[in-house]
Amino acid sequence: MTAASVTAPPRALALLPILALAWGATWPLMKLGVTEIPVLSFRALTGFVAGSALLALAGLVHGGIRPLKREWRGVVICAPISVTGWFYLSALSVTLLPAGRAALLAYTMPLWAFLIGVLFLGEPILKRRLIGLAAGVGAILLMAWDALGQAVGAAEFPWGVLVITGAAMVWSAGSTLQKEMRFESPVMVIAAWQLLIGAAPLALLGLALEPRDWIGSVGWEPLAALVGVGLVSQALGMWTWFTILTMTSVAVASLAILCVPLVGIGLAAWLLGETIGWVEIVGFALIAVGMATVTPLEKLFGRRRPPGV
Question: pTM to 2 decimals?
Answer without folding.
Answer: 0.83
